[in-house]
Design brief:
The chain is α/β, with parallel strands linked by helices. Helices cover about 40% and strands about 20% of the residues. Strand 16, helix 14 and strand 17 form a beta-alpha-beta unit. The protein is globular and about 60 Å long.
Length: about 475
């Protein structure tokens, strides 16, 4: 286990251009990140291509063993990684935040290593025998976001490595230190050149997405950027896995218990201070329960402390960057100006240090209000009233995104019936956003395509090959 200072020093460049990364909670400097160039990207791709054949030839057992050792290495440096993540991204150490995220990195590495993937016999009738295998792609490009920088990077690299690929990672310019540090730790257990982080600007990301040596791009981020990657992948017919924007709906059925579901609703919406693609972002509540749900949810939200992430008492932090802060503020202001009722928050302190926007609940809001129709990606939840189940489903399905959704009810059969009518890649019942490394995850409509996690996630990082005969 490295000390925090040693971990930070290991990723601080000795020469070359750097970018000062600021703590979004305090505005103070966290560290210096390298500003890599397209030439650096080419060097990383060359190293990946050189390292990949031997890694592929090593076989599943050897690759899985290396990933298990990498998980152990992450756990040895867990506290140092969590502190760096908290300072750079802003999320608190406690709650479902920085320590949770680092723990998830180890868990997903182990899951990728431990998920069996055997050749599938498709036909064996005495005359014909056909088997389906999955071979390595080669070099995978992984482009990640700033909200869960470590965890989502592992979601991308762990199955890619398990399937025999090399990986070149392009982290968000907002959170490069966390990804560089994580890769540094994981690389303690991997062959040289197999996993490289190239910390550069948009030009590096564009070059990665178009490079002819990259056989697949995995991207988590905005739908707009995802569309650009789709276009740029066409000339080389790259494989893609895209986890794009979401504006997840939750529907509370008339039989739900408001007090029993209030904390689950809160964390579904406000995990990582709302900065989660598959967070609950629109809550539809039946008229008969509307005021009770508003009351119970407000009580839970009031009790959740927000502040600097390194303070052990806090469970909510700042928005990671000022651009996102401005989006949340604009949408809440639009809701207030429309006559919506602000149950909690909506009143950020002027002149404060850090990108803190208060936990905000907005009631009596129209379904076409910008706070409902646009993805806020922050600590503001609109609560919309409905009278019939058909009305709630129609409103939930009205947008062109469909990453996740949830249904809240004491009647599981009724909840499953509603879930089956929702246009989303995952629908949770009596919870929201609970991802599991064993369970496939992916979006519908313009929330992207391709599956991650479990056996399907491994298959997505391989090239299917049928051996017939």
């Amino acid at each position: 286990m490295e000390s925090y200072d040693a971990l930070l020093a290991s990723i601080t460049p000795a020469t070359g251009e750097t970018l000062t990364i600021l703590d979004p909670a305090t505005g103070t400097a966290v560290g210096e990140a390298p500003v890599h160039t397209v030439e650096d990207l080419q060097a990383a791709i060359d190293a990946a291509r050189a390292a990949q054949p031997a890694w592929a030839a090593a076989g599943h057992d050897a690759r899985s063993a290396a990933l298990l050792k990498a998980a152990d290495a992450v756990e040895r440096s867990a506290e140092e990684l969590a502190r760096l993540l908290s300072r750079e991204q802003g999320k608190p150490l406690n709650g479902p935040n920085a320590r949770f995220e680092v723990g998830a990195c180890a868990a997903w590495l182990r899951a990728a290593a431990g998920t069996p993937l055997e050749a599938e016999t498709v036909v064996d009738d005495g005359d014909t025998r056909a088997e389906l295998h999955y071979r390595p792609i080669g070099v995978v490009g992984a482009i990640g976001p700033w909200n869960w920088p470590m965890m989502i990077t592992v979601w991308q690299i762990a199955p890619a490595l398990r399937m025999g690929n090399a990986v070149v990672v392009k982290p968000s310019e907002y959170t490069p230190l966390s990804v560089l540090a994580l890769a540094s730790v994981i690389n303690e257990e991997l062959p040289e050149g197999l996993l490289t982080v190239v910390s550069g600007g948009r030009d590096v990301g564009e070059a990665l997405a178009t490079h002819p040596a990259i056989g697949k791009v995995m991207f988590t981020g905005s739908t707009t950027t995802g569309k650009a990657i789709i276009r740029s992948s066409a000339d080389t017919v790259k494989r893609l896995t895209l986890e794009l924007g979401g504006n997840d709906a939750g529907i509370v059925l008339p039989d739900a218990d408001p007090a029993a579901i209030a904390e689950g609703l809160f964390w579904g919406a406000f995990i990582n201070t709302g900065q989660t693609c598959a967070a609950l972002k629109r809550l539809y509540v039946h008229d008969s329960l509307y005021e009770a749900v508003c009351t119970e949810l407000t009580a839970v939200a009031k009790a959740m402390p927000m502040g600097v992430g390194l303070d052990e008492n806090n469970v909510l932090g700042p928005l990671q960057n000022r651009q996102q802060y401005a989006i949340v503020a604009r949408l809440v202001d639009a809701a207030r100006d429309s006559g919506a009722r602000i149950l909690l928050g909506g009143n950020p302190e002027s002149g404060q240090a850090g990108n803190f926007y208060p936990t905000t609940l907005v009631a009596d809001i129209d379904n076409d209000n910008p706070l409902v129709a646009e993805e806020q990606f922050g600590p503001a939840l609109p609560i919309i009233r409905y009278t019939t189940i058909d009305q709630a489903i129609a409103m939930a399905n009205a947008l062109d995104v469909g990453l996740g959704a949830s249904v809240w009810s004491t009647d599981l059969d009724a909840a499953r019936d509603v879930a089956a009518r929702l246009q989303a890649g995952t629908v949770w019942i009596n919870k929201h956003g609970a991802v599991d490394p064993r369970i496939p995850f992916g979006g519908a409509k313009q929330s992207g395509y391709g599956l991650e996690f479990g056996v399907e996630g491994l298959k997505a990082l391989g090239v299917p090959q049928v051996i017939n005969g």
